[in-house]
Design a protein that fits this description.
Elements: H1 4-16, E1 21-27, H2 29-32, E2 42-48, H3 52-56, E3 67-71, E4 87-93, E5 98-105, H4 109-113, E6 119-124, H5 147-169, H6 173-198, H7 218-226, H8 233-258, H9 266-277
Parallel strand pairs: 2-5
Antiparallel strand pairs: 1-2, 1-6, 3-4, 4-5
Helix pairs in contact: 5-6, 5-8, 5-9, 6-8, 7-8
């Protein structure tokens, strides 16, 4: 596997040899201070004056090495384009290295940098970044919700809960588990909001909530882990009442911290418990 120094040298030399590339920044875990391991990607942005040929052609990517697989999400028929104007090229190499390269039109540089992810300048041919600032703190701080966002999170959690019960009743385990993943997402969102509301400064939940372990009480973290239930009816049925109670507690406490109205879903919870026992 190529060393960090080798990869950064290659990324820079490739950019320096291309007139279209004017600026290069490094982002992600290699900038945020995360512990380094062999799975760490190189999240790189090339700020370019011309996009068309670079999007369609792949020969210019050859210097990066022997690719096992590549993905260009904006060209995929299975996903909607994000429409933001930049173009990701994701590459896994045979030696284990991986580059997530994003092509950004020079005119959209400021928009791209305003996403809030920490970054480090690697190359600036025209002094573009001297006029702009790179985020240096860890990225993706939890943003406190509006009252409407809080209410929508609660509504989504309770709206989806009957689908899990229905899946269990019908013996559709994959259906039930698919909807538990939605409950998990909203519970995770609520926990991150509560942690942010309780904190004196910014908090970081991390990708997929991995950072929550450091910022929420142990019992809440354990409850979140339990939501990754096995595909067994008894396991899922045993999880649900505890998850409903945990979400009720977290959402009530969050409402109190933020001064939002809290809607008690007693009737729905009673109905859910009855259906679960049938």
């Amino acid at each position: 596997m190529r060393t960090n120094a080798d990869m950064l040298k290659l990324i820079l030399e490739t950019a320096e040899a291309m007139d279209e590339v004017r600026t290069v920044t490094l982002h992600g875990s290699r900038v945020s201070g995360a512990p380094e391991d062999r799975w760490m990607d190189y999240d790189v942005a090339y700020y370019v004056t011309e996009m068309g040929a670079l999007q369609q052609e792949t020969a210019w990517l050859a210097p990066f090495g022997d690719r096992l697989i590549m993905q260009r999400p904006e060209l995929s028929t299975l996903a909607e384009p994000h429409g933001l104007g930049w173009f990701p090229i994701l590459m896994q190499f045979a030696d284990g290295s991986r580059i997530d390269l994003t092509l950004v039109p020079v005119k959209l540089t400021e928009n791209y940098l305003q996403q809030g992810e920490p970054g480090r300048m690697l190359l600036d041919k025209d002094g573009l970044l001297q006029r702009l600032s790179l985020q240096q703190e860890p990225g993706f701080a939890v943003v406190l919700p509006t009252a409407a966002e809080y209410a929508d999170c609660c509504n989504e959690f309770w709206w989806v809960s009957p689908y899990v019960v229905k899946g269990l009743a019908r013996g559709q385990l994959l259906y039930a588990l698919e909807h538990i993943s939605i409950l998990r997402k909203e519970y995770r969102r609520m926990l991150s909001w509560k942690a942010a509301a309780e904190a004196d400064g910014p908090v970081y939940a991390g990708k997929q909530g991995d950072g929550l372990e450091a910022i929420v009480p142990e019992l809440e973290w354990q409850m979140l882990q339990r939501t990754y239930a096995r595909a067994e009816p008894e396991k899922i049925a045993g999880l649900l009442p505890a998850l409903w109670q945990a979400f009720s507690t977290a959402s009530n406490e969050t409402a109190g911290l933020l001064g939002f109205p809290y809607r008690v879903e007693d009737r729905l919870q009673s109905w859910l418990h009855e259906r679960l026992q049938e």
